């Protein structure tokens, strides 16, 4: 099997010395300052003169800023993270003009991510020791997993989360070998109580990590709310306590999603998932909290890139496919008019089969996904026309028998 070369980021915890922590904190502040100055200059140039400022112009501005007395402190840190901040701003504007992202916003000292990116000219990696520019000693990294043999990082990103933990991410080129082919396919229906329902009938319960820590989180947030506004030590301590609880929730959720996605990719040659507009669903304030905790979008992202790495087929369906309303029994294909969320089981009035809502949806998702990948067919059945009694087709309809044939 042919190996595939991919760029992978390996993230590790590290414990800086007091001098290193102070240097990195200064670097984070300078990166934020340069980003905000460049964003203000680009926005002002567009609003006043309808002029677009590019990366090279902001780089020249950075040189001029360093020569001023007010911003002379920018010369005290490595210049590479500052240049990388300008490149990130250029990428943000490129995505904005291409309508792939929102307009770039100013970075906040309290709310924005604290990070700095170093390229090869600003760090030294030898014998498993990483030393950054402006530092005499290497970082004390906790090597929780080995880097690829002979790997040479091209980019190093240092960050600190809200809980006060320090991380370093090393971007390396790695070789990924596709997994051996297997004769199996799976359709996946996501939910809230049941995180995943698989087409083989298995249902995976949603751990609901946020709900498990909700009492502790609420108490910590009440304690934070009682602290006086400002930069006092007691408020900072209470804020870190809240951040640590959130970090625990995020870490456990990510670990669970990685294990599930890896298992599904290893066991199946074809992975079919339903299409969901998660950002639109989050506008429902009664369900936004549990939907965010389920992290459907993150699970789909993991499945997609792991399938690409390991030679599997990833098939996403259109979001309008009525997987829950359609009877999955071969030769039936009855389509319900409505299917409220509180209906977890239903009996098909045409064939009399009793369906579990989630498993039935997963089976329809698998059949439709296999038909799409094999036949290039549409997968959106339309309701019968009241005038003719025939299907009012807006795109090609895949009969249930044809779906089953593709599945077999």
Describe this structure in words.
The chain has helices spanning 18-49, 55-67, 79-97, 209-212, 214-226, 233-267, 278-281, 288-294, 296-309, 357-375, 400-407; strands at residues 4-14, 114-119, 123-126, 129-132, 141-142, 155-160, 166-176, 185-190, 194-198, 203-205, 270-273, 313-316, 345-347, 354-356. The chain folds into 3 domains: 4-176, no CATH class; 185-316, no CATH class; 317-408, no CATH class. The longest helix is centred in the middle third of the chain and has 35 residues, at 233-267. Mean pLDDT is 88; it is low at 381-408. Helix content is 41%, strand content 18%. It has 408 residues and is an alpha+beta fold. The protein is globular, with a radius of gyration of 26 Å. It contains 11 helices and 14 strands.
Report the total helices: 11
Radius of gyration: 26 Å
Mean pLDDT: 88
- What is the strand arrangement across the widest sheet? 2-6-7-1-5
Distance between the termini: 26 Å
Low-confidence stretches: 381-408
Strand content: 15-25%
Order of helices and strands: EHHHEEEEEEEEEHHHEHHHEEEHH
What are its keywords?
408 residues; alpha+beta; five-stranded antiparallel beta sheet; 41% helix
